[in-house]
Design a protein that fits this description.
12 strands; single chain; LysR family transcriptional regulator
Amino acid sequence: MELRYLRYFVTVAECRHFTRAAEKLGIAQPPLSQQIKKLEQEVGVPLFERLSRGVALTPAGQVLYDDAVKILAQLDHAVQRVKQVARGERNQLRLGFASSTVVSQAVLELVRRLQQAHPEIDFQPIELPMPALVETLRQQDVDLAFLRLPCYASEHVAHTPLFPDPFKLVVPANHVFAKQQSVTLSQLGDDPIILFPRDIGPGLHDALVDALKGAGLTPSNASLAPQLHSATAMVSAGFGIALVPESLTTQLSDHVAVVAVEDMPLVSHVVLAWQRTNTAHVVRQCIHTAREQVTQMAS
């Protein structure tokens, strides 16, 4: 299939009229109609319904249109990257961070190593809640992203595991649990538990609530932290206690203490994610480097 067929097809689909599409493309209308007929013959189905005052996409045509727009956008992006290289410009990679990963020392160390390994790449950081971040990945407005699982939306993107991040209990320094090495979930019933809003991470929020309910706890009196990583600050301010991933407890004030939870069934996992159809060389390079560096960091 010739790419010019796709460009002609997309233009007709957007103009919904052969004559207007031909004018926009700068060609005569009869040759344009012939090219569209050839495309329909090649795919084996009608792509347009001919109307008295124009055309409309058939269901099959709508499917091809959605994919053709993405294909042409990727091609245009590839051409721009080639021109950048020819001009001696640095490659750009948009690197997304779920809000709960941006303060993780392990994530930041991996980013530092990625930048050292690829000085030719200009990394552009973007921080978003997990659902919004996955959507930007799907639309390829972000090239790679650090996500925290479980995340319902993550099934729509590819990802490689980086490290597990078990949950820990954070309590005020003067709390009775502060001097204990570990506790069980059932012991937490007397304290208000600080949670994060469900809309910033529905999968993780539901998994945490299910873990609490499994221990007979109903967090109906929970306070809400603006973000997962801000729950520890609310503990320090005296709002209650919090269960947070271990990577968020490495640089806390002396006003709080971190305690292990013996029977915590939930383990969060930090992953590096990308859109499955994103085959950009710079993206594949960074995925390969990240895997290598994670192995080195774990050894």
